[in-house]
Design a protein that fits this description.
The protein has 389 residues and is α+β, with helices and mostly antiparallel strands. The strands form 4 sheets. Strands 1, 2, 9, 10, 11, 12, 13, 14 and 15 form a 9-stranded antiparallel β-sheet that branches. The protein has a two-stranded antiparallel ribbon with strand order 3-8. It has a two-stranded antiparallel ribbon with strand order 4-5. α2 crosses α5.
């Protein structure tokens, strides 16, 4: 999940929670130096730079833990960590622990849709009504005028379901199951944001509809399709799409926390991710995320034509300077030149930022609470440094 800082919108899957989560620096105190992981050897790079960036996220920005996985030009991967994995017990951060990856899930979902396009089962410029007749109807909303491409590109004008009253206080729904249609109804009760194709604006609703489209076309649950077509295909051994009712993180993981309205930190590690579904439910690791984006950009998941469509971008400056958005994929300029291709994700308890370069570098950084604006910028700086230095 990335945030539109200019709009101060803290949205559940990509930008945090609006109203339910206070998007501000989290005051958890200074973590003792003894809890910081030792600097790892990093061939061809600056190990002190990556490690010191994570240390600063913990000590200066007050985040419970920070984890990173970096693959250099030599193809070698190194992992880093700082902070504590459990504030109650003081347990160490697991090496390359599993985390909820939030809106990075959208890229997985987009890959499946584009595979269906390649198979001739879905048309990118066909209307949503072609596959889900009558589903999208509301104030200024008509599925006959919204294309599949516009869903994946966030140019549909669909309002965000995370702004619905049912999700206004996440503390009341941490363990509640949502049907996808229930999430969609929360969006359809709102007015369209703009006419399809006339603007860009991030909306989690687009990927709820994309998930429903996958299910309608394939006849299988979206999680099964993502698992079969993406996760198993490229051997992501620590990545899974939670099944209904699964609220746990299966392997070693740092606990994830959210700051409540009173400033306290609440453990949100165990939660029902159905409120994010095809827009943000997947659990993975930083290293698996690097492997996923490397495989995607390397042509292992999509034919050349569909990968080219995915990489065809429109301006998305609300996400940050120079950022552009394709079909479930973002590009961001690096300080050393070239582009970072990835997505990013935020869900209560975790925020991840990462991606890959065209020459094979990759990095992913995760923190275990949603940082404020300063911490978010420090994450972005740390990611840039990991890839550029």
């Amino acid at each position: 999940m990335n945030e539109h800082v200019q709009h101060n919108r803290a949205q559940l899957c990509h930008r945090g929670r609006r109203r339910a989560v206070v998007v501000a620096a989290v005051a958890v105190g200074v973590v003792a130096a003894s809890t910081l992981a030792p600097t790892a050897a990093f061939a061809g790079g600056r190990p002190g730079g990556v490690q010191s960036s994570l240390n600063a996220l913990v000590k200066d920005d007050g985040l419970p833990a920070a984890l990173a996985s970096v693959k250099g030009r030599d193809g070698r991967t190194h992992t880093f960590s700082a902070g504590v994995g459990n504030l109650a017990t003081g347990a160490k951060v697991p090496v390359d622990g599993q985390v909820r990856i939030g809106s990075n899930t959208k890229t997985f979902t987009a890959v499946v849709v584009l595979q269906l396009v390649a198979e001739g089962k879905v048309g990118l410029d066909a209307s949503v009504d072609t596959y889900l007749p009558g589903l999208l109807r509301g104030d200024g909303i008509d599925g006959r005028t919204i294309t599949v491409r516009q869903l994946l590109q966030h140019t549909s004008g669909l309002p965000d379901y995370t702004d619905a009253p049912a999700l206004s206080d996440f503390s009341t729904i941490q363990h509640r199951y949502f049907e996808p249609r229930e999430l969609l109804d929360g969006a359809l009760a709102q007015k369209a944001r703009f006419a399809p194709g006339t603007r860009w604006e991030y909306s989690n609703t687009n990927y709820i509809v994309a998930g429903l489209l996958i299910q309608k076309v394939t006849g299988r649950p979206v999680g099964e399709e993502i698992t079969h077509r993406v996760i198993d295909r490229i051997g992501l051994r620590h990545t899974y799409f939670p099944t209904p009712g699964d609220m746990t993180i299966h392997e070693a993981h740092p606990e994830g926390y959210n700051q409540e309205a009173d400033g306290s930190l609440h453990d949100y590690t165990e939660m029902d991710p159905s409120m994010a579904w095809a827009a943000g439910a997947i659990v993975s690791t930083n290293t698996d995320l690097n492997s996923f984006f490397t495989a995607l950009l390397g042509g292992r998941l999509l034919p050349a034509a569909q990968l080219a469509e995915m990489r065809t971008t429109v301006p998305a400056e609300l996400l940050g300077p120079g950022i552009r958005y394709g079909l479930g994929l973002q590009s961001k300029p690096l300080s050393c030149g070239g582009l970072l291709w990835g997505h990013g994700g935020t869900i209560p308890g975790y925020r991840s930022r990462g991606g890959v370069t065209d020459d094979g570098r990759a990095a992913s950084i995760t923190v275990t609470t949603i940082p404020g604006a300063t911490g978010a910028q420090h994450m972005a700086d740390a990611l840039d440094a990991a890839l550029c230095h």
